[in-house]
Amino acid sequence: MTEDPFEAIKATFFQECEELLADLEAGLLALENGEGDDETINAVFRAVHSVKGGAGAFGMEALVRFAHVFETLMDELRAGRKPCDDATIKTLLRASDVLNDHVAAARGAGAPVDEARSAGLVAELEALTHGDAAPAASAAAPEADEDEFGFKPVQFDPMDLAPAAAPATSGGGDWRIVFQPNAALYAKANDAGLLLRELSRLGEATVEIDASGVPMLDVLEPEEGCLSWTIRLPGAVDEAAIREVFEFVDGDCDLAILRDEAEAPPVEFVAAPVAAPAPDLDITALLAAAQAQVQAPAEPAAPAPEPAPVIAAPAAEAKAPPAAPETAANAPVAQAPVTIRVDLDRVDRLINLVGELVIQQAVLAQRVSETAMIRATGVGQGLEDLELLTREIQDSVMAIRAQPVKSVFQRMPRLVREVAQMTGKQVRLVTEGEATEVDKTVVERLAEPITHMLRNAIDHGLEKPDKRVAAGKSAEGQVRLAALHRSGRIVIEISDDGAGINRERVLGIAVEKGLVEPDTQLSDEQIDNLIFMPGFSTAETISDVSGRGVGMDVVKRSIQSLGGRISITSKPGEGSTFTMSLPLTLAVLDGMVVSSAEQTLVAPLAAIVESLTPRAEDIHLVGGHTPVIRFRDEFVPLVDVAATLGFGIGPEPASTGVALIVEAEGGAKAALLVDAIQGQRQVVIKSLETNYQAIDGVAAATILGDGRVALILDIDALVSNTRRSVRKPDLKLAS
Amino acid sequence: MTAVRLPAVLDIRAAGTLREDLLALRGSDIVLDGGEVERIGGLCLQVLISAKKTWAMDGKALTLAPLSDALTEQLAAYGCADLNTDLVGATG
């Protein structure tokens, strides 16, 4: 085992942080939409609490400090002492953004935290926590605040225990907790009062203060802790619950948790950090476990570092904060699904192997059919079963990688808030279909294009509030982000209710930049699509918000590289909709295997509407050279696949071949003319870009059962080529 | 008899100031007005207890009155419901 176990645990902590922060934001958004209840507030509290707890174990002081202030306010809210109104939720949302930044900074992944912003939010949170009395002071001097509040490492100075810690007189079996906070506890913005309150929530508590350690005022160090308390709790209280109260102040106080016996054994006082035997798993226990593992002899041939991931799940549970008894009783927390964390490489290896299995299965099927083995022997049946099984395995394996798009969508509210603030617009983000699942690779690569398009939608799409009002709309613009499954693909729609694309301006810019000839006649759709052209977007035409050096052409390319496509529809005065359509997985595809000019090709099944044998009388030439075919009372372009891709000539006359009626994204249809259909098959996608280069009209390649390589057709490219009137398709397929 | 009004929030940031303010009044009988206190932390509680001890040693009177509801409640939670009477060890 070569990996540093401490680092592994830290990595696990950050993974948990991601989930916790996502829960946090989801909870806050639910509250904002009025969908939250007490349990939502509790969940938000727990998320912040857990982040703080983990961060404390790793000594991430800035993060702990911020989380603590956040948590304190959440505590007030969940206790109902402060109202959870709109203004508060908005502040909490911004606080969650800063908390994200703190986590990212602690992880070393993000930019350093904007201290002024963080301090400002600390002041705001404190103002909300303390009501109206404190805000003026703390908001006015955030820097001073920061200094005073800053973590100061303080010498650990165990004080002698006071006489009050003497054996208790109460009934046998009760808990006696002797607790003396040190300066560090206070310096970390914890307080004895909070802990006492937490304890008293666990059961009927009697609290006894011992002030014998408090010196005269002239020698008192105001930031040193010299009070101690003895708290008695009924024996029925769970020890773990008691320890949880002190979970985050372990090293910062002297603590003894004792159970009174009839004989009243001598009080044994122990410093908490050394002795507290964690009854449940927590980060401290994890650290200890990891330490033990380092010291233990190396396990023979351990395949990969795994101890930390495997115990991660229980750790998360154990870190749940102490729930107030009444909450525990009447608000059952949803049972978290049991999960394990698995290294992505392992999953990918499995997926690759299953891909090979699919190919081998196809090879086997082909060989058997060639040898004409009879179905009666059961071989045929066995093969069919095998195929079903293979497919099921493949689906299951792919499901491992499938993730809801929620993880990406959840990052967007923050973006919207920030962009809205920068542009002075009022925006409401509506998200739909967050549970839609798609392959992890796709999910990860969705974030950037969605981010960019959302920015654009707010910056360019939505009007300023006054303009909107003047146009008879509400001052608040709406941006909708939706995900859905459609014909075996995932579709992401980003729409705004803004002014729509200013076609005159877009055309003007395109002409100015020499992208189109001044006298070109373009349809509205073609003008809208100009924004995707390389070189359309430059520093002059985009603002600070959208202008990050990335144009829509880059967005389009990044979507295309995922096997996706993007389209736009826009109505003046009503807004624009960008539609991205992406494959659910980048690994397999249901395809129709066809032959054309002695080549074997695969057409994605999802795009095929129908196949038919063209009749000569249905084929017409438009303008004397562009063939179209009549299909159910409409004419669709007839595309000779072999000729279009440049490797031969298709069936001549056309009526000797087969036409596949395909539908591209956006509903445009075309008829692909091929020689014959061989059959329907599931194929494993092998990227052409990775292994060769991108080819217009070809989406990818696959390996067939007979070992030959077949190209997978890019239906959208083929269809859009037929509709391109401005430019001739530039075909690059060599031979 | 000097009256001192305690601030609303007696947290870690208030502890140092509170100590100095009180020290400046050492030698005189004082009344601490806790009528507006919303929150008191452990450190300010220490300062008050220390002051109580100091004033007792000096033979002077230190009285806490009036008390806001929040202060009353929080003092009780700290196990020293009445700061004006003797605490365990407070006069020791």
Automatic annotation (TrEMBL), chain A:
Supply the InterPro entries for this chain. Answer: Bact_Chemotaxis_CheA, CheA-like_dim, CheA-like_homodim_sf, CheW-like_dom_sf, CheW-lke_dom, HATPase_C_sf, HATPase_dom, His_kinase_dom
Q: Which CDD domains match?
A: CheA_reg (cd00731), HATPase_CheA-like (cd16916), HPT (cd00088)
Keyword Transferase appears in the UniProt entry = yes
Per the record, its GO cellular-component terms are: cytoplasm
Domain of life where this protein originates: Bacteria
Question: Residues where Phosphohistidine occurs?
Answer: H49
The CheW-like domain extends over: 588-724
Every Histidine kinase domain range: 383-586
A Gene Ontology annotation in the biological process aspect, one of them, is: chemotaxis
> What's its catalytic activity?
ATP + protein L-histidine = ADP + protein N-phospho-L-histidine
Limits of the HPt domain = 2-106
EC supergroup of this enzyme? transferase
Which key words are in the record?
Answer: ATP-binding, Chemotaxis, Kinase, Nucleotide-binding, Phosphoprotein, Transferase, Two-component regulatory system
Coiled-coil features, chain-numbered ranges:
none
The Enzyme Commission number assigned here is 2.7.13.3
GO MF terms listed in the record are:
ATP binding; phosphorelay sensor kinase activity
The protein's job, in short, is: Involved in the transmission of sensory signals from the chemoreceptors to the flagellar motors. CheA is autophosphorylated; it can transfer its phosphate group to either CheB or CheY.
The name on file for this protein is: Chemotaxis protein CheA
TrEMBL record, chain B:
Q: Gene3D superfamilies in the record, alphabetically?
A: STAS domain
Q: Where is the STAS domain?
A: 1-92
Protein known as: Chemotaxis protein cheX
